[in-house]
Give the backbone structure.
Amino acid sequence: MKSLVFMADGSPVIALVSGADRLDARRLADTLGVTSVERATGEEARAATGYAIGGIPPFGHERELTVVMDERLFNHETVWAAGGLLDAVFAIEPEQLRIAARARIAAVAEFSEGPPGNGITADRPAG
């Protein structure tokens, strides 16, 4: 699973999507009711979350942020998320992730053919 930082009308938000999926910026904008959604720079992501890109966890940020969780994550029994460092991950059930991140659920991933993660546990870290 990826924790992606975007700037929505200038304010940082976190989008949680499967590692196998891509985020649809237009869907995220529609979900948030904003006109502009752009990927945050590394500096913007660190300022908003306290973490560097590649290790941003889905919760536990420097400040409270809006978190949107793609509904397709619920197709997995367990998802793997960054734990604050490039080499730190943890497993969590999607519902527990939603609760811990105080996330809003929405369809924000691009549609792709086949099941999310195409059934190969793409959310699990390599190694």
User: Anything to note?
Assistant: The CA atoms of residues 27 and 108 lie 5 Å apart.
